[in-house]
Design a protein that fits this description.
seven-stranded antiparallel β-sheet; alpha+beta; 399 residues; elongated
Length: 399
Amino acid sequence: MSQRLLLLALLVLAPLAQAAPRIGVATMLPGEIFWERFGHDSIVVDDTAAGAPISYNFGFFDLSEPGFVGRFVRGEMEYQLVALPFAEDLVYYRDTGRGVSIQWLDLSDAEANRLAVALAENAKPENARYRYDYFTDNCATRVRDALDRALGGELRRQMETRSQGNSYRSEAVRLASPADWMWLGFDVGLGPFADVTRSRWEDAFVPMRLADALRDVRRADDRPLVRSEQVLLPHRIAPEPRPEPQRWWPWLLVGIGVAAVLLLLGRAGPRSTLWVALPAWTLCGVLGLVMAFLWCCTAHRAGWANHNLLLFNPLCLLLWPGAVRMLRRREPGRLFRSLLLAILAGAMLALFLLWLPLQPQRNAPWIGLMLPVHAALWWLYARTGLVRQAATAQDARHA
């Protein structure tokens, strides 16, 4: 009888005697494709009883999924968590030359087991999908949040009280800087939401920032959370861009230079400057419509209330009829001059908002570039008698 009781006790206690899984955070450095510029990460669960280590990767999406492009444009894109063998997950990064390192965490058995169970549940098809946001809900913030829940909120308590002075804009522009079109798009398209100084908790939308922060997290007994680190794959492509100060004065010099060229061309008559003004007005108008669409018609919160709408003004497109009349040596009309004044006033308002402490936006370079240009065009076509003189001269020739 005692032997049977002993056997029964061993069967009951055997699962409790198994070692808890080892938990690691794998960080993948930035790649060369535009969606790889911010880097990536995953949680690795190494459970010897279950076999090979499993990578819980929150970064999967399907470009061929019906409606994907429309949801991407509207800011309603969905990603999903996928659990796959860690060795299989590493193949892509090895083939593309992206460096991968792993931080093994010092978790208690209860914390490690709780995290492993939660990830396995989250990876089920009915739970795996989530609404993706570039800054507030992405692959790195999902890793951060899963760790924080396992640690009972301790991760957030330590990370949100500290800041390195970064913002969503500074990080986005920095990481996108190898691709000119990408960093320009971020810098023009992001509104004041992106310029708030963020805590290290919020900085963790960037996987490399999360890895840096984890190194500084301490347990209750002052042990470091990161027990050990190792490099799994060397980084064989361009390194992660370093932070650089944003300079506004080169943009101001360019803006003044363009304005000076316009004023010099204006001496030859209004038609000479229109070959510069028309492409500029078209570009401004199209960019303004895109920014207005992001604000009014999408869930891209970081692009809402963008002060650059005052610089890249959709009203510029309404200048086309007056410009066409000038090309035909005719008076452009009173509305044309009123629009020029409204566009210049908008650019001056953007300068005022730059120094206003309420919801500031770091768009000084764009103000420096566009304000002199708008002022020069207003002076040429509305303030001076250049257009009127050209039209009068044309009438005289016809007479």
